[in-house]
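Q: Got a minute? One more chain.
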Amino acid sequence: MPTNCIRCNKFKAVLKRPKTGSALCKECFFWAFELEVHETIRSGNLFKKNDYVAIAASGGKDSTVLAYVLKLLNDRYNYDLKLVLLSVDEGITGYRDDSLETVKRNEVQYGIPLRIFSYEELYGWTMDEIVKKVGLKNNCTFCGVFRRQALDRGAASIGVDKIVTGHNADDTAETILMNVLRGDIARFQRCTNIITGSEGSIPRAKPFKYTYEKEIVMYAYFKKLDYFSTECIYSPNAYRGFARAYIKDLESIRPSSILDIIHAGECLSVKDTVKLPSQGICKCCGYISSQEICKACVMLEGLNKGLPKLGIGKSSKVKKKMEDIQMTKENSNPSEYF
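A: Always. Here it is, folded:
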């Protein structure tokens, strides 16, 4: 039997919030969703007045809703932010080229300027070309490493103060679970922090850190937002996909599981015995890295030298191989090498 909205009691409830179980009408759901994101921004001190903020825009539901809501809140609460959409073209035919068309429409719909940077111009490779070399087993590792640095490079080139991403509560819980399964407890702090990048790179903020993916989908649906919903053609075998399926099963039994996992990760990350790898500068590209040579440069070197799995193995073996390559360079005749 239909019930009235528990907040306004004027209209029929059209949904039950996955996060709280509250029955709300559309307008009250919009109000609750937007207020929670605003409170996350305010309590996390994500922005300062006059910040130049890049919204990492893929055309998917998370980044599209983030762009819409951030513009709305910027106007409503006078954040005084200068916004720009920042997209990365990985070079995936039939996927990224189509999703970028959505981002271009969002540029017009929201009145936010758009900048696009591609793997091809930054690295000399597209993901289609990389997959031909590495196959479908480790391709997501390459894409994740290259995409993170591509966002940093693109943001640095246009001079932004911060990058905001559409990472939601489900994503955070998945990352915590993956770190547990890998035994990588030291990375809890980085994956649970609402702002990362304080080591020297451009700070990244996650306004959707406590926002459920289902509610983002519901917001986009009821607002009739224009977004791209096709999954990447190279991701079906991604390790994260198995963590995602497990989180969904937990959520179906206990909806609070997502926030419970995030809270557990936050508690473990503040232990004195948990230390993050020290951050330095990659001696090849100059970007932040916990190794002498960053992962992106190692992988790129492997691709260029016909050793596509160079950056996949254990760090000690990778370091030894890079040293051998460097020694070969130094001992070779430059004209022969190039």
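A: Residues 333-338 have pLDDT under 50 and may be disordered.
Q: Perfect, thanks.
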